Structure formats: structure tokens, C-alpha cells
Amino acid sequence: xxxxxxxxxxxxxxxxxxxxxxxxxxxxxxxxxxxxxxxxxxxxxxxxxxxxxxxxxxxxxxxxxxxxxxxxxxxxxxxxxxxxxxxxxxxxxxxxxxxxxxxxxxxxxxxxxxxxxxxxxxxxxxxxxxxxxxxxxxxxxxxxxxxxxxxxxxxxxxxxxxxxxxxxxxxxxxxxxxxxxxxxxxxxxxxxxxxxxxxxxxxxxxxxxxxxxxxxxxxxxxxxxxxxxxxxxxxxxxxxxxxxxxxxxxxxxxxxxxxxxxxxxxxxxxxxxxxxxxxxxxxxxxxxxxxxxxxxxxxxxxxxxxxxxxxxxxxxx
Length: 317
What we know:
Oligomer: single chain
Strand order of the largest sheet: 1-3-2
Radius of gyration: 25 Å
Distance between the termini: 80 Å
């Protein structure tokens, strides 16, 4: 009996081809960068038209979407950085309660502002903001635009102001290097691929199109959760530690405070915990990298005035 190819089967074939094209675009971005996107789109659509897989209208739509992908890799404006950071920050404070101690938060902000001014990014669109989170977890978060959060658990790993300054300087290092934005930039391709799906499937059924769009939209909503749960790469952490050392030296704080804090953290981290142990490289590996920059560890000197104010504001943290 002769097999009849139904419209549904034709639709399925085109959908499979479209998914393949999307994967090809993603691979092209990762391997060759956005400059090659237009070329990839032109070649892919030319083949599609020549083989009859798509018509000229669909080819033009796909090429239009490829340009959207390229545009998605453009730099964010300072305003966009600020609002992205606020969005991430809102999610963080929804997950962790802010620490209701005005004096301690004011102290952390004064310390953080002084360190930020000595960084390579002394100003942001909305300014730097520092907040203590009321959590025993040993953790900290840096959102784009200058929103920095540090838990009570991490501050307890700091025995002096130099160590606390080191923690804040490390997070400032993430902001000045735009590490959060780089993670989001990679995810923003999802938005462009949603456009690609919409443009390239104009002849598809509403139900199938809705499923495809929902898949991509679900990925978009996961962006901030990914930043919080997965943490930065070791390379990014090394960059932030390097920035911290530089900032500490510029402000006359001892970089050994960072090593000291990591030593204490190493003893307190719980395997499998929801903290630095999951989202950061091991303290030992970081200490090794830092000591290559500053030399062998030496005990941090504690000027009386500096230690007194640290104990006054964070002694009961």
C-alpha cells in the first residue's frame, strides 16, 4: 500500500529542520562569534531555498532573526546594567532576608563605597549598594550595576576589617569585570532564538508554535536562578581575586586578609551545602592563586582604630 505523507508529517519534518537550524546558529555563535552569524544565516537559508525545504519568505525571516542574534551580543548600557542588577537583587532578597541591623549595614556600605572608589569601575549608573543577608550560609552575590550582598555566615569568617574589606573587594571585582552580564549575555541568545522560532514557523500551527515559544521563554526566566545557583567559573573567580588584591593595595588594606578569610572558610564549609562550597572553587585553590600574587601568608596586623570599629559594628554578627 502506498504511504501518503500527511500535512502533519510535513509539518514535523519542517520543525525538525528548524530545530536543527537553531542548533546550528547556537554552535556558530559559540565557535565563531557574532560576526559570522549573517554568513551562517545566508548559507543556511540558501541551502533551504535550493532544496525546497523553506520558501523565500521564510528565508528572509530567518536572516532577520540571525541579525537579532548578532544584536543581542552588543554591550549593555549602564542603565540596562542597573535594572538587570535590580532584578537579580530582588530575587536574592526574596530568597534571603536582609539583616535588620542598620548600624552594621551602614558600616558595610561605608567600607564598600571606599573600596569601590579605588576599583577600575568607581561609579555605576545607580551607584554601589551593599547589603548584609540574614543567613548562616557562607555566601555572597554580586549583581550587575553594583548590587552586592554578603551573608552573616560569610562575615563570621572575617576576624578583622581587612578580611571584610577583602570579601567586598572580591565582589566589586565581579562587578567591574561585568561577570554577571557575561553570564546573562550568553543566555540572551534565547530571546533571539525565540524570535527565530516565531519568524521561521509562521506557517506552523498555533499549538506547536506555543510549545516552542514556551520552551524558550522558560529558559529566559531561568537566567537569574542560574547565576545564583551555579556561580562563576574558576577563571572569573581568579579575576575577581586579582581585582580584590589590587583594590586592597590601593586602599592600604592587607591582601592577606583575603587568605585569612579563606582559611577560616575552608574549616567551616559543609560538603554539599548551599554556599560557597557549591558555587565557588575551593578555598585552597584560591589561596594558592592569591599567594602567587602576594607571596607567602603572613598574619594580618590589626591597627587599634580599625579593629575597634570592626568589633563594634560586626562583633555580634
